[in-house]
Amino acid sequence: MSHKITLKVNGKPVTREVAADRLLVQFLREDLALTGTHVGCDTSQCGACTVHLDGRAVKSCSMLALQAVGAEITTIEGLTPAHSANGSEMHPMQAAFKECHGLQCGFCTPGMVMSAVDLVLHHRCSSETEIREGLEGNICRCTGYQNIVRAVQMGAQNMKA
Question: Which stretches of the chain score pLDDT less than 50?
């Protein structure tokens, strides 16, 4: 049985029919072609699927699309500075990840960036320990996290500017 859902994704209203068991990550990737949100583990352990739901980081593989009715979802594709007229400018956290080489293969990067933005906006994490603890739910299989921590610190400074 399908249900009609309406929500806002990356600032645009979206109405679609979805099956009751459709995960939010499937809805975003398969129905809306927003493939920056990755599926890594299907058990909410890796954080590759992290998006913002009403301004807070959530793992989209652990919630149903139906649970997002009426919500505002931001994916990595929608994470652009407010002053970027056409969305071509990188968010300060994305720029910091690039500058600090906080990515390697890039698979975890969208979820890592979304979680890092949430840390800065809602948890005021700034020390290495706080950042590492705050990113506990995001797994990177390529790095030792040193550059990711530096990127989050730089991104936090850039977001304040």
Answer: none
Q: Are residues 63 and 113 in the same domain?
A: no
Instruction: Note whether residue 117 is domain-resident.
Output: yes
97 shares a domain with 52: no
DSSP of 116-153, one letter per residue?
Answer: HHHIIIII---SHHHHHHHTTT---SS--SHHHHHHHH
User: Listing from the earlier edge strand, what are the strands of the sheet with 12-19?
Assistant: 12-19, 2-9, 72-74, 50-53, 56-59
Whether 87 is in a domain gets the answer: no
pTM of the complete model: 0.92
2-9 and 12-19: which strand pairing? Answer: antiparallel
Task: Give the model confidence (pLDDT) of 6-43 as tens digits.
Answer: 999 999 999 999 999 999 999 999 999 999 999 988 78
Domain containing 142 equals 92-160
Exposure string for 57-87, b = 16+ CB within 10 A, e = fewer: bbbbbebbbbebeebebbbbbbbbeeeeeee
Is residue 83 a part of any domain in this protein?
no
Q: Name beta bridge partners: 50.
A: 59
